[in-house]
Amino acid sequence: MLEERKKQILQAIIDEYISTAEPVSSGALVNRHGLNCSSATIRNEMAELEKAGYLDKPHTSSGRIPSAQGYRFYVDELVKEDDISLEEIRYITSKLETRVNAIEDLTKIATSTLSEITHYTSVAIGPQNGFQNIEEVKFVLLGTRMLMAVILTDTGIIKETIIKFDEDITEEQVNTLNFIFNNKLRGKPLEAIDKPLEEYIFSEMNYSLAVIKPVMEQFNKVVNEESKVYLEGANKSFELPEFKSLEVARNFVNLLDTKEMMLDLLNTGFAKDINVYIGDEKENKKLKDFSIVTFKHRYQNKDLGTIGIIGPKRMDYSKVISVMKYISKKLNEKESE
Amino acid sequence: MLEERKKQILQAIIDEYISTAEPVSSGALVNRHGLNCSSATIRNEMAELEKAGYLDKPHTSSGRIPSAQGYRFYVDELVKEDDISLEEIRYITSKLETRVNAIEDLTKIATSTLSEITHYTSVAIGPQNGFQNIEEVKFVLLGTRMLMAVILTDTGIIKETIIKFDEDITEEQVNTLNFIFNNKLRGKPLEAIDKPLEEYIFSEMNYSLAVIKPVMEQFNKVVNEESKVYLEGANKSFELPEFKSLEVARNFVNLLDTKEMMLDLLNTGFAKDINVYIGDEKENKKLKDFSIVTFKHRYQNKDLGTIGIIGPKRMDYSKVISVMKYISKKLNEKESE
DNA sequence: GTTTAGCAGTCAAGAGAAAAGAGTGCTAAA
DNA sequence: TTTAGCACTCTTTTCTCTTGACTGCTAAAC
């Protein structure tokens, strides 16, 4: 465990580095943070903090920058979790009070608000299919050869899809579809459509394979479809000094542009309310210079997706975590509409 | 008008610059392009082409690069419109043969194929609402207090939206909504919902303002909603040498990240099949280093949106235009499903 | 009249060298 | 345990010099 003064100094160094992006010198620390000692004392402490692995030095005669371990300690022990102003609280509240019809719109609003307040790039994905149960299925005839299938789940997420046919569909067939699908699927998880069920439905409707086959195909497609990725404020990151490096900028664009990577980053590890991954803690080389902070959008204990920030390793963790905590709480409290 | 040899030289210079991204010298031209004269002759011609405004020189003793006017001449007069291989034709054909249910999926497939073949970043937007007519409107009850409204237009685009209510909705009310909306809106343009119509509907359903008001509100929202922007291969651009400049990279991300800008760029000027905007011809400073090439996704003379490429000013116009022509033709020919 | 060889002139880019500046680490004294 | 002081280190900036790639021009050749 670190002594109190070491903690103070480590905190001051990281705070300073977060705001300046420059290696922090002993002199600067004494000047700008009210530490009651001389720069020489700081230097001694810094040397010890470096030996213990909390700090790094780009070269012999430069100031210190936080190491991965330093950031980790900062996030776990030193972060302020109420670094949010009254004005920001008001802004967030007003944004989240917007009346939405589709639940995904609320995720989008939360994501863009998060980016606006933190000035970092934010991302979101919808809930994973595996955790949703089917509440109702409805088939609607559009024209004569087209059906829309609507699936309502217990999270409030509504999935719809179009199915086209080579022959006309009768109202009676639509009714049968509605009856069978609701009977068999209500209350089941979204991924419930397995082989036995498929065979049952086939046998029930065997009078018209031309109808049931496209339906099953499209249904399977919707159920297995991966979630959408929402992105907000990608350009904000390009104002950061670290983006002067071509490699950093390229890795960033690469990350954001690869959907599978984004899904992977946002979909793992939710031991805590707020999850922080510093640098390549996630075993992804492209993340070397970035950190990711995520939380689950929950409402009445139901999972409505994941919202996160992707920013530089030296991101303002206190601000990000405070704002996320607040947004998360507000989303969870939001009254049903 | 330019003499034949000047044209040849200009073409050679631009081709060379497109592939190397380096200023082109008189010597390089003689070596790599079979021109039957010495470098001194080329130098004389180059000097004249520069005087006429087709070429620029970064500094006194450097090779030449094309000017905006040079690119314009190249695109208008020198471009090869069949710069596409058999293999590419096969690949495009197989991609576009994918059976899709929602028409937007076809736009997405075309957009990603375009990016794959050209190795540039491609973008697409859906059709503007103003050009679509309503073919059918359908309200579907989901649960007891939620409706889904489905609007089918004559382009085959299907728009759906959720409407939530504070009180239960009866089947009878749904029927009335279906009857009134279809009666009044069938065949009308999507933007047909004006004040008189709104008042008519209100009076027809005045027995329950709590029902009709949310419906009208949401309907208006859908109809006035701006189109989605699809993006493919943003990271491909970051491999280009011009992206070593921070300013270029930043402008690019800024463009892509600003939806209004993208809509604006893709939504104007369709005098020709394929439209080319070189640099800031579109009066947008951020476009200074980029060119945009677009075409309308048309099917049976109906507008299904716009697809485009955004790349460096020195993009391979011949390839891009050839591939676009082919994709455009294939999309238009695609048989109805 | 057009083309070409030849050469002087220009400029960018790269390689050192030198100087300036920012910080550290260590020592010895407080 | 803290601090002043100073030597030392390493980056950054600035200059200068050199190299090399081109051009433009002139005068001769075709």
Protein model, in words:
The structure is a homodimer of 337-residue chains. Chain A has 337 residues and is α+β, with helices and mostly antiparallel strands. Chain A has three domains: 4-78, Winged helix-like DNA-binding domain superfamily/Winged helix DNA-binding domain (Arc Repressor Mutant, subunit A, Orthogonal Bundle), CATH 1.10.10.10; 86-128 and 227-335, GAF domain (Beta-Lactamase), CATH 3.30.450; 130-224, 2-Layer Sandwich (Enolase-like, domain 1), CATH 3.30.390.60. Helices cover 47% and strands 19% of the residues of chain A. Chain A is built from 13 helices and ten strands. Chain A has helices spanning 4-20, 26-32, 39-51, 68-78, 86-96, 103-118, 171-185, 195-204, 209-224, 234-237, 246-257, 259-266, 317-333, and strands at residues 55-56, 65-66, 121-125, 134-142, 146-153, 158-164, 229-232, 274-278, 290-299, 302-312. In chain A, the strands form three sheets. In chain A, strands 7-3-10-9-8 form a five-stranded antiparallel sheet. A three-stranded antiparallel sheet of chain A has the order 4-5-6. In chain A, helix 1 packs across helix 4 (68-78) and helix 6 (103-118) packs antiparallel against helix 13 (317-333). Chains A and B meet through strand 4, strand 5, strand 6 and helix 11 of A and strand 4, strand 5, strand 6 and helix 11 of B. The first copy, chain A, binds a DNA duplex (30 and 30 nucleotides) through residues 23, 25-27, 37-41, 43-44, 46-47, 57-63.
